[in-house]
């Protein structure tokens, strides 16, 4: 793989994404590779954007939120982009905290039901 430009196939391999995913990110204007005929080439800017896209997805942001966030940088600059990022991050932290509480409750309930099942099962053993 080249340090400066990646082919379509190299980009898929580097980020472990399907060709369909990469084409879709281009279609919704998250990525804009250089083109030479039908060939696509991804430079450092696109590699950095892909890193941010995948990180945003891991944090639970929608593709539209990520697209808007990347667009703000081009239109309004770093300060506006950071302000928008903080809003997204604060909202997502609240949502992830809510999900964490739900998971902790589910784990606690499942452990209690499991303990009940173990206790019931022990009644069937001779002893």
Notable traits:
72% helix; three-stranded antiparallel sheet; 3 strands; 5 helices; mainly alpha; single chain; Multidrug-efflux Transporter Regulator, Chain: A, Domain 2; 127 residues
Assembly state here? single chain
Order of helices and strands: EHHEEHHH
Largest sheet: 3 strands, antiparallel
Number of E strands: 3
Q: What distance separates the N and C termini?
A: 67 Å
In percent, how much strand structure appears in the residues?
5-15%
CATH architecture of the domain at 1-58: Orthogonal Bundle
Q: What is the typical, i.e. mean, pLDDT?
A: 92
Shape: elongated
Describe this protein's structure:
With 127 residues, this protein is mostly helical. It has a domain at 1-58: Multidrug-efflux Transporter Regulator, Chain: A, Domain 2. The chain has helices spanning 8-15, 19-27, 44-58, 63-76, 78-122, and strands spanning 6-7, 34-36, 39-42. Strands 1-3-2 form a three-stranded antiparallel sheet. β2 (34-36) and β3 form a beta hairpin. α3 crosses α4 and α4 (63-76) packs antiparallel against α5 (78-122). The longest helix has 45 residues, at 78-122.
Give the helices and strands, then pairings.
Blueprint: E1 6-7, H1 8-15, H2 19-27, E2 34-36, E3 39-42, H3 44-58, H4 63-76, H5 78-122
Antiparallel strand pairs: 1-3, 2-3
